[in-house]
Amino acid sequence: MSADELGKALWDASYAGDEAEVMRLIDAGAPVNWTTSSWGGSTPLMLAVWNENADTVRLLLERGADVDTTDNGGKAALDMGDDEACREVLFDAERIQRWHRRRLLVAWKQ
User: Fold this and answer.
1) Which positions ≥6 away from 22 have C-beta within 8 Å?
2) From CA 81, how far away is CA 4, in angstroms rounded?
3) What is residue 91's three-state secondary structure?
4) How many CB atoms are closer than 10 A to CB 15?
5) pLDDT digit of tens for each residue in the chain (110 aa)?
6) Any idea where the domains of the chain sit in the sequence?
7) What are the distances in angstroms from CA 11 to CA 17, 31, 92, 107, 109?
8) What fold is seen in the domain 3-109?
9) Which pTM was predicted?
10) Residue partners of 88: CB distance under 8 A and separation at least 6
């Protein structure tokens, strides 16, 4: 699959809240911040928030999703919904991603 096909598949899996598929696609090289012109340039993270999939939100953040990316209207993931569980995960993004960056550095040093 091309990067664009992987990105679209990740977008769909994130929308559906299919965590196993999200993980498989990211492991296969799907671009975690992939956007599309449909849905106004939303990322997989934004769709997971919009659909109130807090576990998928956490997984995407653990795998490097950018919480500050904005869609075509200037909205970020935090603006996509008001589900309390998703908001808590998003507010904890810095700590979650600190571990993601640490894992990348360890892998790079090896």
Assistant:
1) 10, 13, 14, 44, 56, 59, 60
2) 26
3) helix
4) 18
5) 898 999 999 999 999 999 999 999 999 999 999 998 777 899 999 999 999 999 999 999 999 999 999 999 999 999 998 999 999 999 988 888 776 666 555 555 55
6) 3-109
7) 10, 10, 22, 26, 31
8) 1.25.40
9) 0.85
10) 54
